[in-house]
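A reminder from the course coordinator: this example appears on the midterm review sheet, so study it carefully.

Given structure:
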């Protein structure tokens, strides 16, 4: 008869594998070096997510090294410490219902925008194809929140930015944390990494835009709408059926 730990390992094998593959994709897509980033995969029915272990380089990862954490923040599986950003992931899973994957990186172009403390405007159709809105940037965290529980408050800061701005996290699947870097999410861990790749690329293009013209204006709204709807609208015609 299987012991409890062996049973748990079998139940969460797929979840750990999903998190493992997502973390490898961070490295493949050059979104992070060394240990600079993490991805997690969430099972809402079980209230458990698998996340990268803290301080372990990507080349050393295995599915079994992924750490299992319940929605209350308790480690329920794994011999290693979970990512230092675990509480941020936890808050996003609690508050953004339907999100099943979260990714955090320190990719340079997205981080550069985060360090300005400014949102990323929709300068062109490349951005509009993937998001019809500017990418929000949080305020800088206040000293008391940093002192209290930095990672937990990072999650709260993201959630409050969306709530206070009346923003839809299902339409805007990425954000910038001021002075820190990007967090992205999706309906799977792999999709959350995909959104990190998109954010990095549009951040790069946006930086080139303001470098050429510091007074560059956002794309007109009617063009933004057209590019979003041709890929995501009710009558979308981009791609194959």
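Designed residues:
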């Amino acid at each position: 008869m299987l012991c409890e730990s062996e049973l748990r390992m079998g139940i969460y094998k797929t979840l750990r594998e999903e998190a493992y593959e997502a973390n490898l994709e961070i490295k493949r897509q050059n979104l992070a070096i060394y240990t600079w980033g993490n991805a997690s995969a969430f099972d809402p029915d079980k209230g458990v997510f698998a996340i990268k272990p803290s301080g372990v380089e990507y080349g050393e990862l295995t599915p079994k090294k992924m750490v299992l954490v319940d929605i209350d923040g308790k480690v329920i599986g794994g011999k290693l410490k979970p990512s230092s950003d675990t509480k941020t992931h936890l808050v996003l899973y609690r508050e953004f219902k339907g999100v099943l994957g979260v990714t955090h990186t320190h990719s340079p172009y997205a981080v550069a925008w985060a360090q300005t403390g400014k949102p990323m405007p929709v300068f062109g159709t490349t951005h509009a194809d993937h998001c019809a809105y500017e990418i929000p940037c949080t305020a800088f965290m206040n000293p008391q929140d940093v002192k209290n529980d930095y990672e937990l408050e990072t999650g709260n800061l993201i959630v409050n930015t969306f709530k206070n701005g009346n923003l839809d996290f299902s339409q805007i699947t990425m954000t910038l944390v001021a002075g820190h870097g990007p967090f992205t999410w999706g309906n799977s861990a792999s999709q959350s990494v995909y959104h990190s790749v998109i954010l990095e690329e549009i951040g790069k293009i946006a930086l080139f835009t303001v470098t050429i013209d510091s007074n560059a204006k956002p794309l007109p709204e009617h063009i933004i709408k057209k590019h979003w709807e041709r890929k995501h609208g009710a009558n979308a015609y981009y791609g194959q059926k």
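The longest helix spans residues 189-212. The two ends are 48 Å apart (CA to CA).
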